[in-house]
Amino acid sequence: MTTISPLVSTEWLAEHLNDKEIRLLDATTFLKLPDGDGLYSINSGFDAYKEEHIPGAVHADVLHELADPDDKKAFTLPSRERFVEKIQQIGVDDQTHVVIYDRIAEVGSTNSASDWASRVWWQLRYEGFDNISILEGGFRKWKAEGRPTKSGEESYPQGTFTKTRRPELVATKEDVLAATKDTDTILLNCLSPEVFSGEKNTYGRPGHIPSSENVYFATLSDDETLKVKDEETLRSIFEPTGAFDSSKRVVAYCGGGIAATWNAFILYLLGRKDVAVYDGSMTEWVQDEQAPLATSNE
């Protein structure tokens, strides 16, 4: 298979939409943030997918199918067996190349990050699969350009998925707690500056995990063009955090392990391909009253 960029354009997808090895996944999920403090609400994007999607796409259900059904927290990684079963059902095979897109990061926001797509990208990489691309600009850019869409459900033949899991791409709460006192690990908080500082209390206890660096995931793409920012700009955003120091481990986290995967994806584009994600993120962290938090911009 010809090497395909991990970030593909709408023009590229239009040219390759009917390629037999392509598996197009619509990862749309709807997250709505409250105006003030408090937790977000979440809804599946399946109905929106059935109403309209890019031709050939199948729905990748981040909220239900590709998550642990027994965990009260949303989006928790499923077992290896469940993931393989579900990803094979939607047609992903060892010999295929997966292209993923979504609609919108947050309901009512202009935020152009494709973090639902990057969540599936990260899950596939965690399970050992590398032939993956994200559609730059997602469904919004595709639609704005007047490209064709379809309604209803589509499917691919059942896949065979035999890759080997990469446990190093996931960080646990214990890993993160140790990292707060370990200068060899960089904790990357991907939430807004208001949530990071504790000015806004989204998860029940305000602030961020001590020693964290803040890179808001919404600042990595352009809300007008819907494109990822240029390499020089992206490097200037991440450089102060030390994320390019290959001697250090980078662990990204956010609220529930979604936005953090967008930062991990952008760092992947910049050559840092070993970024781990704290899957439980702030949702899990704040539930432990003993887990420390800092409430400033320090």
Description:
This protein is α/β, with parallel strands linked by helices. The chain has 2 domains: 7-144, Oxidized Rhodanese, domain 1; 167-285, 3-Layer(aba) Sandwich (Oxidized Rhodanese, domain 1). The protein is 26% helix and 14% strand. It contains 10 helices and 12 strands. It has helices spanning 10-16, 46-51, 80-89, 115-126, 138-144, 173-179, 193-197, 231-238, 259-269, 281-285, and strands at residues 7-8, 22-26, 29-32, 41-44, 58-59, 97-101, 132-135, 170-171, 185-189, 213-214, 249-253, 276-278. It has a 5-stranded parallel sheet with strand order 1-7-6-2-5. Strands 8-12-11-9-10 form a 5-stranded parallel sheet. Helix 4 crosses helix 9 (259-269). It is globular, with a radius of gyration of 18 Å. The mean pLDDT is 96.
Helix content: 25-40%
Shape: globular
- Please state how the strands of the largest beta sheet are arranged side by side: 1-7-6-2-5
Give helix and strand order, one letter per element, not per position: EHEEEHEHEHEHEHEHEHEHEH
Number of strands: 12
Question: Any chance you could write out the topology, listing elements then pairs?
Answer:
Blueprint: E1 7-8, H1 10-16, E2 22-26, E3 29-32, E4 41-44, H2 46-51, E5 58-59, H3 80-89, E6 97-101, H4 115-126, E7 132-135, H5 138-144, E8 170-171, H6 173-179, E9 185-189, H7 193-197, E10 213-214, H8 231-238, E11 249-253, H9 259-269, E12 276-278, H10 281-285
Parallel strand pairs: 1-7, 2-5, 2-6, 6-7, 8-12, 9-10, 9-11, 11-12
Antiparallel strand pairs: 3-4
